[in-house]
Amino acid sequence: MEDAYNITTTFILTGYEKNTSNTYVYFACSFVLYVITVFVNVFLIVVMFLDKSLRGPMYICLCHLLFNELCGSTAILPHLMANLISESKTISYNSCFLQVFFIYIYAAVEITVLTVMAYDRYIAICNPLRYGSIMTDVKTHKLVLLAWVYSLLAILVLVVLSLRLPLCKSRIDKLFCDNVTIMNISCADASINNIYGLCLTILSVIIPLLVIVYSYIRILIVCLRASKEARAKAFNTCLSHLLTIFIFMIGVLAMTIGNRAQSKNASPLVINLLSLGFLIIPPLFNPIIYGMKTESIRNGIKNILRKRSTSVLGEKANKIQSI
């Protein structure tokens, strides 16, 4: 199998610890993490859907961001949990490339939607009088749809280019599949993949980050000229988005450090935690940040919970009266 040429049907994921007594501890932690991640993201989406005051460009973008993070965590955690309690620690050829496809779409959509949100904040603060005419709901839907379509097409090309590569090995030294590892175990020249990957990095990461930085430089310039009250209001408006970007960058940095540490014989547990950071940190913390830091969302949560408690109390009162 190890020296086979393009006949690999199953990959062995060697990132999992063998014969460890902590298997069920890791499984329990992963399960709790996944349940919390799904709950906080779905809960916030439901709150924005039910509360009619939570409408507008920012909430449209946030719904897509939360949905994307559900997809990202689902692309890795269920399979990771299954492998933790499995003896084989493997992934099929098709599942591996599907995992690559969804993980990279998650990354591409995350940064593009964050860019749309930065543009929204830029218009709201730097051009407030025209905000309603520039950032309409229709335009926001189009921008977010463009983010999804671009990401799907760009990552589809990336995966198709990797699918054509003949593979010489069946061992993947990670907990999950990624495109870099696929290229590393291929037998053929992957120059086209490397060139496309570089172009994709420039278009999907560097340019969006430059747009975000430019937007916040312009926001900072406007804030420096404004009154103290206006600066405080602008800061509160941007805080959640800034924290989201910060968490995104922490996840990317953790994954990068994990990949570097892998070649330096660092602790497998540390390497695995770092490599998973990009797929775990944003989906878990972003909905919590928006729920805690955004006043309108906090109020929406309170309204939903208040209505729910009132409804429950009303039902109990009716039952008592009927008795």
Automatic annotation (TrEMBL):
Entry keywords, A to Z: Cell membrane, Disulfide bond, G-protein coupled receptor, Glycoprotein, Membrane, Olfaction, Receptor, Sensory transduction, Transducer, Transmembrane, Transmembrane helix
Single GO MF descriptor: G protein-coupled receptor activity
Any one cellular-component term (Gene Ontology): plasma membrane
Record domain G-protein coupled receptors family 1 profile: where: 40-290
Localisation: Cell membrane
Family the entry assigns: Belongs to the G-protein coupled receptor 1 family.
Protein name: Olfactory receptor
Species per Swiss-Prot/TrEMBL record: Latimeria chalumnae
Gene: LOC106706847
